[in-house]
Design brief:
The protein has helices spanning about 35-40, 50-60, 95-105, 175-180, 195-200, 215-225, 290-295, 320-330, 345-355, 365-375, 400-405, 415-420, 430-440, 460-470, 485-495, and strands at about 5-15, 20-30, 45, 75-80, 85-90, 110-115, 135-140, 150-155, 155-160, 185-190, 210, 235, 245, 250-255, 260-270, 270-275, 300-305, 335-340, 360-365, 390, 420-425, 445-450, 475-480, 500-505. It is α/β, with parallel strands linked by helices. Strands 1, 2, 3, 4, 5 and 6 form a six-stranded mixed sheet that branches. Strand 9, helix 4 and strand 10 (about 185-190) form a beta-alpha-beta unit. The longest helix is centred in the middle third of the chain and has 13 residues, at about 215-225. Bound molecules: zinc ion (2 copies).
């Protein structure tokens, strides 16, 4: 039969700041139960042979106080008459704290007794709580291109990063989207205005929602075009200017992407940092140099987009694209149309510059003109640029008419047909206009430059637009460079910030 053991000892409870509660520092001696009678002292107890005072120097860690009475302490004895262990401990240690101790000492029976002599620095304080940790939770966006929803929290503070909308979800909200919209956050921080990051932005109105100041102007212009106003709770952050949400410090870093005013976001609290890249690239007009000089030397966690991992998408620079555009436009015999996203402001700049270099004027439909005007600065837009004109692809009424008439540089379809050679960005919704215009001009020699991700060719409206353009006699060429970082550039960023933890989101892999 297995021999039973009696365990006696002394212990200290050291506060655990990471997880809350206590860590026990224990000293013990065990005796065979059969020897209990002989070992008992005159009052019938088996006791540990050393006092806390005598044992502390051996038990303590170097950084801990020398005073053996600083931490809560206690003693385990064996009551020979009652055949059970008894524990005497500081009153601040709860029964469940002491039950943990039973496991450590491997004893099954124990009576807890309070001993008011055991006074420590903690006797009258609450149980130690865990020091909060900066943490993240990716709700959606892994193994998916976009639709990002990420939570970042520290103690009581909880931030939602991005308000991406499922692109194939239509108007219907998914269960996760509904949950996120109902969850109480201290604030939402959005990296840029693309729908897979900001598609739900006007549906979250119960807390502040932050986006870059320029991106906010673009959202405002989009709302205006729809005859709506941007919700009041959408606020702006600015490049490099840190702001606080509860206990978390947020710093936005302007980066290059196919959306105007896109940011990487740094979250800091409790000495830890998380850098979230949003969508970015280093081959746009903004290079990595400026950003690399500003980013922190090191972060603990890097949550990076990975759109181009394992793909061979073209990643040449926006300047190179401009050069190639000049070649195409120079050799075109008629008007040049660009099939591109209206909100890709950098692309607008590239084609405007190419048009100008080829002596052509530039047309922007009302929507594009509003977005370009909202971007401001050196972005080509009617009125400010001599050679940029606004037009409407279809008759406008009400609010849109008012918006259109605010532009002084504007032209109707007749004037466009009879006017100087031009370059004009178009979208699939402008097919009717394209047909009408082609009836007024001889479209032979006209060129359509496809300047979007090749995957959009599969969309019904894009397919129809391309087919119809071909039957109208437009020659089609592709000229596009990715709005996302190449695999090499993803690696360069990781190397630059040296994160211990590297998480990839926004990827098909
Ligand atoms: Zn995205
Ligand atoms: Zn994007």
């Amino acid at each position: 039969m297995e021999e039973n053991y009696i365990r006696v000892g002394i212990f200290w409870a050291i506060p655990n700041r990471e997880e809350g509660g206590w860590d026990f520092r224990m000293l013990q001696k065990s005796y065979p139960a059969s020897a209990a009678e002989q070992l008992a002292n005159p009052v019938g107890f088996i006791d540990y042979p050393y006092s806390h005072y005598d044992a502390w120097d051996d038990a303590r860690h170097e950084t801990e106080p020398e005073d053996c009475y600083f931490y809560p302490r206690g003693r385990i004895l064996y009551d020979v008459k009652r055949k059970m262990h008894r524990i005497f401990a500081d009153t601040c240690l709860s029964v469940s704290d002491l039950e943990d101790l039973m496991d450590f000492y491997d004893i099954e029976d124990m009576e807890v007794c309070r001993d008011e002599h055991y006074v420590s620095a903690y006797t009258n304080s609450p149980r130690p709580t865990a020091r909060p940790k900066l943490s993240y939770h990716i709700l959606r966006g892994k193994e998916k291109i976009g639709e990002n929803l990420i939570e970042i929290s520290y103690g009581e503070t909880k931030i939602l990063v991005e308000l991406g909308k499922a692109l194939d979800g239509g108007e219907e909200l998914s269960d996760l989207e509904k949950t996120v919209l109902e969850t109480k956050y201290d604030a939402v921080v959005v990296s840029h205005y693309h729908a897979d990051h900001a598609g739900l932005i006007d549906k979250k109105q119960d807390c502040p929602v932050y986006i870059g100041a320029g991106a906010r102007r673009i959202l405002e212009a989009m709302s205006k075009f729809r005859g709506e106003t941007l919700p009041q709770n959408i606020a702006a952050y600015r490049d490099g200017r840190s702001f606080r949400i509860g206990k978390i410090r947020v710093t936005p870093y302007l980066c290059d992407h196919s959306a105007f005013d896109s940011y990487m976001l740094l979250f800091e609290a409790g000495g830890k940092s998380i850098l979230y890249t949003g969508d970015f690239r280093f081959h746009g007009r903004k290079t990595s140099d400026v950003l690399f000089a500003r980013l922190p030397k090191r972060v603990d966690v890097l949550i990076s987009e990975g759109t181009n991992l394992g793909s061979e998408k073209p990643c040449f620079s926006e300047r190179e694209l401009e050069e190639r555009a000049v070649e195409l436009i120079k050799n075109a015999d008629g008007p040049v149309f660009i099939l591109q996203s209206a909100s890709n402001i950098d692309r607008l700049v590239s084609f405007y510059r190419a048009a100008k270099r080829c002596g052509r004027i530039f047309y922007e439909d009302l929507y594009t003109a509003l977005l370009a005007s909202a971007a401001g600065g050196s972005i080509p837009r009617p009125d400010v640029f001599e050679d940029v004109f606004a037009f409407t692809p279809r008759p406008v009424r009400g609010n849109r008419k008012d918006l259109f008439f605010e532009f002084e540089h504007k032209r109707g379809i007749g004037a466009i047909a009879k006017g100087r050679p031009f370059v004009m960005p178009v979208r699939p919704s402008m097919l009717g206009f394209l047909q009408k215009l082609c009836r007024k001009i001889a479209p032979s020699g006209a060129l359509l430059i496809y300047s979007m991700w090749s995957g959009y060719r599969e969309k019904d409206d894009v397919k129809e637009f391309l087919e119809e353009a071909q039957s109208l006699g437009l020659k089609e060429r592709t000229l596009h460079t990715s709005g996302h970082a190449s695999a090499d550039d993803l690696m360069r960023l990781h190397k630059r910030v040296g994160a211990d933890e590297y998480v990839i989101v926004h990827t098909a892999r």
